[in-house]
Write a structure and sequence with these properties.
The protein is an alpha+beta fold. The chain has one domain (2-73): RRM (RNA recognition motif) domain (Alpha-Beta Plaits), CATH 3.30.70.330. 25% of the residues lie in helices and 37% in strands. Residues 1-79 form the RRM domain.
Length: 79
């Protein structure tokens, strides 16, 4: 299941996001979206968790929580 994580701090790294989601299960992919010109984070990422139940728990537990100084929004991203 692919998860969209929004409102990330610009200083948050892909590794930080991956570690946060690993607490809820296996993460097969994590992509922090970067600005092509500056190379800096755009403030959102996609996380793939193959186990649907683990992903649902991660979404429920992490949505609207504080992460690295920002209140993040976490939801199902689609396919």
């Amino acid at each position: 299941m692919q998860i969209l994580v929004r409102n990330l701090s610009r200083e948050t790294t892909e590794h930080d996001v991956r570690l946060q989601f690993r607490e809820y299960g296996r993460v097969t992919e994590c992509t922090l979206v970067l600005d092509k010109e500056t190379g800096k984070s755009k403030g959102f990422a996609f996380v793939t968790m193959p186990e649907v139940e683990e992903a649902k728990v991660a979404i429920k537990e992490l949505n609207l929580t504080m992460f690295a100084g920002s209140k993040i929004r976490v939801k199902f991203a689609g396919h």
